Amino acid sequence: MKKRLFSLALASVMALSLAGCGGSKEAATEAETKAETEQTAEDTSAKAEDTTAQEETKAESEAASEAVSESAGGTLIVGFDQDFPPMGFMGDNGEYTGFDLELAKEVAERLGLEYTAQPIAWDSKDMELEAGNIDCIWNGFTMTGREDDYTWSEPYMANTQVFVVAKDSGIASQADLAGKIVECQVDSSAEAALKEVPDLTATFKQLLTTADYNSAFMDLEQGAVDAIAMDVIVAGYQIQQRNADFIILEDSLSAEEYGVGFKKGNTELRDKVQATLEEMAADGTLKSVSEKWFGEDVTTIGK
Q: What segments bear the compositional bias annotation Basic and acidic residues (predicted)?
């Protein structure tokens, strides 16, 4: 009897022991699974943090590269009227050229800027500048009357507004323009100058405007108009190139100066361009370019 009781007791102890071992294994498995899950989450989080850090580092590197690029270079996009020789126009080789554009290109090269000649409609020049489509207006651009509208370089050339007529027209002075048809470019300095002399324009038969001076000279050649009001520099060049029998009246409309116009407040670019123009005046480059286009030095910087 005692032996039987002992055996039953032993069996109970073994059963409890086995149950205890099973519970321990299950607990261990659950703990291990939980630990593995937590480790996986930590690894995933760490990987995400590494990826974010790499992306941030890449972005910072790209920004730094852009900053270095901007500090090392940039652009100089020059707005100009492509029908305004000799200041800016399309040459026989299909490329834009002219006195002003040649100066602008040289300035850009010395400043390490990428030069672009951007033709614009002259009456849209302010919109192009405000929109950032161009960096400056450099095209026989008259400062007079526009002093407060732009940030200007110092004047680099003197100019006057004059009348061009056919040599055999019988027109020898402004008084002879009474009853005549006069034409000028729209939104030009000549148009502005004519608005300042209403007593004179009131004597005209008609005052017309045209998109460009090439069209105006064609009108004069065909007898559609009697006179053109325009810049004396451009007038002289046009007459020479066309080998036309035209003359420039001695009495001028107004005296003025040419400058490079920048968006109001853009003193940084203005100062760089101005310093370079002064450098070019000092080393004779301005004189050389002027003599190439006009046969003489008509520039005023440093004089």
A: 27-37, 44-61
Distance CA 229, CA 257 (A): 17
Q: Residue 86, preceding bond cis, omega within 30 degrees?
A: yes
Q: Which residues contact 298 (CB under 8 A, 6 or more apart)?
A: 157, 158, 233, 290
Find out whether 298 and 232 touch, Cβ atoms under 8 Å: no
Quick one: CA torsion of 272, 277, 283, 286, rounded to 10 degrees? 160
Residue 7: enclosing H or E segment and its boundaries?
Answer: helix 2-72
CATH code at position 234: 3.40.190.10
Predicted TM-score (pTM) of this structure = 0.68
Residue 183 domain boundaries: 159-254
* DSSP designation for 238: H
Burial class, 9, CB count within 10 angstroms (exposed 0-12 / middle 13-18 / buried 19+):
exposed
Give the per-residue pLDDT at 19.
43
- Tell me the pLDDT tens digit for each residue of 284-303: 999 999 999 998 999 999 98
Domain count, the chain: 2
User: Helices 232-242 and 213-221, interaxial angle, to 10°?
Assistant: 50
80 and 223 in a common domain = no
